[in-house]
Amino acid sequence: MAYDVQKISGNINGTAPLAAARLSNFATGNTELLPAHKSWIATEVREALLVSPHAWIDIHGYSSHRGSKAGFDNLGLSRNRCHSVKSTIAQNFSKASFNIEVGYGDSASLGGEDNNDGYWRAVEVYVFGSKPYKKEIPPHDPVVLYESPEWFVTNLSLTGGALATPVGGGGFYEGSITFQNGSGTKYEGPIAVTGVSFGLSLGIPGLKADKLFQKAIKFLLDNGGFSHADLPSGAIGIVYKNDQKIKNLKPQHFSGSCTMYFITGSPVLATYGVYLLLFGLPKVVGPTADIPLNLAIPPFALAMQANGYAIISAGGIGIAGSLGASANGFSGGIA
């Protein structure tokens, strides 16, 4: 779920606004502002107008895809949301000047035809210090939406059972995984992994001294790691990109070969623990042949080949206990 108010930074068409934010989570089919929206206007917009009495305000309205299939007027809804925001600003600041007021309907929204994510039920407000040279922005050229660089795992569902493997006991598991960023963009894909038992997690060669292992243990012992300020509701893990390969994580970076380790932080938490998931690994030989190859490489070294990694709370996975008991290392792929 997107935040009610997401501040927008950086230049917009070459000009830095005095204040800018995306006001999200308008109620479905509704134009009424949320308390957080009104609070932002009463503070941030007010401060910007005090700094520059000649400020001009641009307003851009959006809607989710919900209702379009049934013929609902999402374009009109986005325009009415713009008008609602404009009216609220005008009521509080009688001398406010407006430059652009445009609704895009669901033309800029992502997801399926019934997607109703709060990120798309939104209005963007930009307060500039003075009137820009160009008065109009063509409807076909909307402002580029801000995408949060922070990604999280919000779902990992696996089912399966015991399986004999060349390197030890374990199991085969398949299911689905969902990655979501702070802006509400999601990547959902199937995941299938073969689990291999090493006895104790520390039995994996070099794991005890491994940097990622130490980070996962710290995550586990630090109250599950969920002190992170940007965690969305329902998050069960935090995602980190490989800075050597990826500048900004995109949905396409999550697919490919993957390897996962089950780690426990202490005997007290032996049935809890965390999963360390390396995603976006290159295929060396093939999906099956790569499994023993990937598991033989220490996690930190293998992570250098991955697009990134996630530290996932086992408490968020329904069969985490049985997964951890049957296998410590997993390798497979995300489609």
Q: Could you please describe the fold and organization of this structure?
A:
This protein is an alpha+beta fold. It folds into 2 domains: 5-128, 60s Ribosomal Protein L30, Chain: A; 151-334, no CATH class. 19% of the residues lie in helices and 30% in strands. The chain has helices spanning 35-51, 74-92, 211-221, 290-295, 299-303, 320-326, and strands at residues 5-7, 19-23, 56-61, 97-103, 123-128, 151-165, 168-181, 186-196, 237-241, 256-263, 274-281, 308-313, 329-334. Strands 6-7-8-13-10-11-12-9 form an 8-stranded antiparallel beta barrel. A 5-stranded mixed beta sheet has the order 1-2-5-3-4, covered by helices on one side. The radius of gyration is 24 Å and the shape is elongated. The protein starts with a strand and ends with a strand. Mean pLDDT is 74; it is low at 133-138, 162-167, 199-207, 223-233, 265-271, 285-289 and 318-327.
Short description:
With 335 residues, this protein is an alpha+beta fold. Helices cover 19% and strands 30% of the residues. A hairpin with a 4-residue loop joins strand 7 and strand 8 (186-196).
Lateral strand order in the biggest sheet:
6-7-8-13-10-11-12-9
Poorly predicted residue ranges: 133-138, 162-167, 199-207, 223-233, 265-271, 285-289, 318-327
- CA(first)-CA(last) distance: 24 Å
- The number of distinct helices, counting runs of at least 4 residues, comes to 6
Tell me the domain tally.
2
Query: What percentage of the residues does DSSP assign to strands (E)?
Result: 25-35%
Structural class: alpha+beta
Largest sheet: 8 strands, antiparallel, barrel
Radius of gyration of CA atoms, rounded to a whole number: 24 Å
Strand runs, count: 13
Shape estimate: elongated
The level of helicity is 10-25%
Averaged pLDDT, please? 74
Listing every helix as H and every strand as E from the N terminus to the C terminus, the arrangement reads: EEHEHEEEEEHEEEHHEHE
